[in-house]
């Protein structure tokens, strides 16, 4: 894939669409590609973490480092694949699986108590003490019937009936980027 | 899974483009306290602009409102703890599009020379521009420079009568700027009463390229405050432009700020100095958006005269993307285009209203300029082009989250929450 969206062929678009389980329309993929090229200022084919962090709205997000780990160095197809979990048409399982991956940094298929505490740490910074974090997680686990040392599996995430909120993207992907007058 | 449309307002790009919602209702006593704390603790040059804090305050108020006590019996602490989707969604949204990057994007015009009879026409146009117009313009520019230097140098070094010398130097600089404008065939329409020389007034304008200065200088010899540039531009700055009373700063030096603020104050109070022109955005923006105005220009206790500048992209895009090309290349691009078309509006002078803070004043003036020029406003600090956002913004989010967690803990068991010592 070249440097401008005119270089994305129909074949490329369909390839990416399949990779994303059809969560993006073809128009959205073209718009996303323009965005990818805009962020990848040096045209290397992937976006470096510096380039991600130059988006102020992203840089102030408490989970930016975790997302960076999942997104940097990816080519466009993989990038679109990761972001497809955020598409409004993604299924609950896909969204939960993404959230699970964010927690499971050691990638061993289980989210342990420490993993939860680590994410809580990112989200709360210095405004919660360690004891408070431990207390919250213990209480949360016990309230839902897990012992405080259990590890959670993706099925547990489903059981807890997480309802991931997904802000509407339509305005952003189609209108943003800006070649439209 | 789509939320109701109210949630859409949480995203700056989506809601603030085109709406002035950010300027209303900024009188928030809570916010003033926040600003004081931030300004007191963070002494570096690049604080988050208050509107950024305001924007995040709104985000977080929404999150807080949701996490307040509900009648819903199905509240499940584990579910709420594990559900990081709002934060993730915000981050993903920012990756997909964000209002800050949009400000610095040069939108390349649609190519029109794509078929068999337009293409030769276009070739003829290119040849005319590069082989006829460009050399003529270069010659014109060179002649203009020669005349200018030939008159300026003697006058600057030999004339003793300060008043007359200043008057002549001003006239010469205006002449040189007209030559510059002619060298890229500037078609500039000025609207509104021309700036008058009066004490205690400053002029502010939106900023697209360094040629803004030339376009405005052609009409009135302003003294500008700008970033010191390297190369031939820097040389010009320290020689010719300083005689007009221009002030230079280096945005990469935090200590510069106090000295520059003092110079500004001195300049404005001197009745003999040229009217001061300030670009409060602090950086070049692509003329479709304006970024936050820095409040420095609005705290000088003077009348502020807004100037709106809007370039017509019909022949060339006048946005200077300083990260992508040097000023010389930018000038060359302008000189090989047919023309640079531009509108300048001199707007009604404004003063600080009673009870208005300088930040609100800056926003009000930005409103005026943005609506006159037909460009959108964005709540970001232009210096984020060079620096990461302050950690304090992330900390605000973390603090709100921590507070909501603690509240949940208390709701569940009021006596058992471990307290911070």
From TrEMBL, chain A:
Per UniProt, residues of the EF-hand domain are: 27-62, 91-126
- Coiled coil location: none
Task: State the superkingdom.
Answer: Eukaryota
* InterPro entries tied to this protein: EF-hand-dom_pair, EF_hand_dom
What's the name of the protein?
Answer: EF-hand domain-containing protein
Originating organism: Riccia sorocarpa
Instruction: List the lineage, top down.
Output: Eukaryota, Viridiplantae, Streptophyta, Embryophyta, Marchantiophyta
Automatic annotation (TrEMBL), chain B:
Region: Disordered, residue numbers: 1-25
A biological process (GO) annotation for this entry?
Answer: phospholipid biosynthetic process
Q: Name one GO molecular function term.
A: acyltransferase activity, transferring groups other than amino-acyl groups
Where does the record place the Phospholipid/glycerol acyltransferase domain? Answer: 201-312
Q: Does the keyword Membrane apply?
A: yes
Where found, per UniProt? Answer: Membrane
* Annotated keywords: Acyltransferase, Lipid biosynthesis, Lipid metabolism, Membrane, Phospholipid biosynthesis, Phospholipid metabolism, Transferase, Transmembrane, Transmembrane helix
User: Which pathway is this protein assigned to?
Assistant: Lipid metabolism
Question: What Pfam families does the entry give?
Answer: Acyltransferase
Q: Record's superkingdom?
A: Eukaryota
**GO CC annotations?**
membrane
Q: Which family does it belong to?
A: Belongs to the 1-acyl-sn-glycerol-3-phosphate acyltransferase family.
Kindly provide the name given to this protein in its UniProt entry.
Answer: Phospholipid/glycerol acyltransferase domain-containing protein
């Amino acid at each position: 894939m070249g440097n401008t969206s005119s270089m994305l062929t129909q074949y490329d678009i369909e390839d990416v669409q399949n990779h994303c389980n059809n969560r993006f329309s073809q128009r959205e993929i073209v718009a996303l590609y323009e965005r990818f090229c805009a962020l990848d200022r040096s045209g290397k084919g992937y976006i470096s973490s510096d380039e991600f962090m130059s988006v102020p709205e992203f840089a102030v997000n408490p989970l930016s480092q975790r997302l960076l780990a999942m997104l940097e160095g990816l080519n466009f197809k993989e990038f679109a694949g990761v972001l497809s979990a955020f598409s409004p048409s993604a299924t609950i399982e896909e969204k939960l699986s993404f959230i699970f991956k964010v927690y499971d940094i050691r990638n061993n298929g289980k989210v342990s108590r420490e993993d939860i505490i680590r994410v809580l740490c990112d989200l709360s910074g210095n405004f919660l003490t360690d004891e408070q974090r431990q207390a919250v997680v213990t209480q949360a686990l016990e309230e839902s019937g897990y012992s405080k040392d259990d590890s959670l599996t993706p099925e547990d995430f489903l059981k807890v009936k997480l309802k991931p909120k997904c802000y509407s993207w339509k305005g952003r992907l189609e209108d943003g980027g800006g070649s439209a007058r | 899974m789509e939320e109701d449309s109210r949630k859409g307002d949480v995203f700056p790009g989506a809601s603030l483009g085109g709406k002035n919602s950010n300027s209303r209702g900024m009188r928030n006593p809570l916010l003033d306290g926040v600003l004081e704390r931030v300004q007191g603790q963070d002494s570096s040059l690049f604080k988050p602009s208050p509107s950024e804090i305001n924007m995040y305050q709104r985000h977080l108020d929404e999150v807080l409102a949701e996490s307040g006590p509900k009648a819903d019996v199905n509240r499940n602490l584990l579910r709420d703890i594990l559900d990081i989707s709002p934060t993730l969604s915000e981050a993903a949204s920012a990756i997909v599009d964000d209002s800050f990057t949009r400000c610095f994007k040069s939108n390349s015009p649609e190519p029109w020379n794509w078929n068999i009879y337009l293409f030769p026409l276009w070739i003829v146009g290119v040849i005319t521009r590069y082989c006829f117009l460009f050399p003529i313009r270069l010659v014109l520019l060179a002649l203009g420079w020669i005349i200018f230097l030939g008159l300026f140098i003697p006058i600057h070094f030999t004339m003793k009568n300060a008043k007359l010398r200043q008057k002549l130097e001003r006239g010469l600089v205006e002449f040189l700027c007209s030559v510059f404008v002619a060298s890229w065939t500037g078609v500039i329409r000025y609207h509104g009463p021309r700036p008058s020389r009066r004490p205690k007034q400053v002029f502010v304008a939106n900023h697209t390229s360094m040629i803004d200065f030339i376009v405005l200088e052609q009409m009135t010899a302003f003294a500008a405050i700008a970033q010191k540039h390297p190369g031939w531009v820097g040389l010009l700055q320290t020689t010719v432009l300083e005689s007009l009373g221009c002030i230079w700063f280096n945005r990469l030096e935090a200590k510069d700020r106090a000295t520059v603020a003092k110079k500004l104050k001195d300049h404005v109070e001197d009745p003999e100095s040229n009217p001061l022109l300030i670009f409060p955005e602090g950086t070049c923006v692509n003329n479709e958006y304006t970024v936050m105005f820095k409040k420095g220009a609005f705290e000088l206790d003077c009348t502020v005269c807004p100037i709106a500048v809007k370039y017509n992209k019909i022949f060339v895009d006048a946005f200077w993307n300083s990260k992508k090309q040097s000023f010389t290349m930018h000038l060359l691009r302008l000189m090989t285009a047919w023309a640079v078309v531009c509108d300048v509006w001199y707007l009604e002078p404004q003063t600080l209203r009673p009870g208005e803070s300088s930040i609100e004043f800056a926003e009000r003036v930005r409103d005026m300029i943005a609506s006159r020029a037909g460009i959108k406003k964005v709540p970001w600090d232009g210096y984020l082009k060079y620096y990461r956002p302050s950690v304090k913004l992330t900390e605000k989010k973390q603090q709100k989250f921590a507070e909501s967690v603690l509240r949940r803990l208390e709701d569940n068991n009021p006596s058992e929450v471990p307290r911070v010592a």
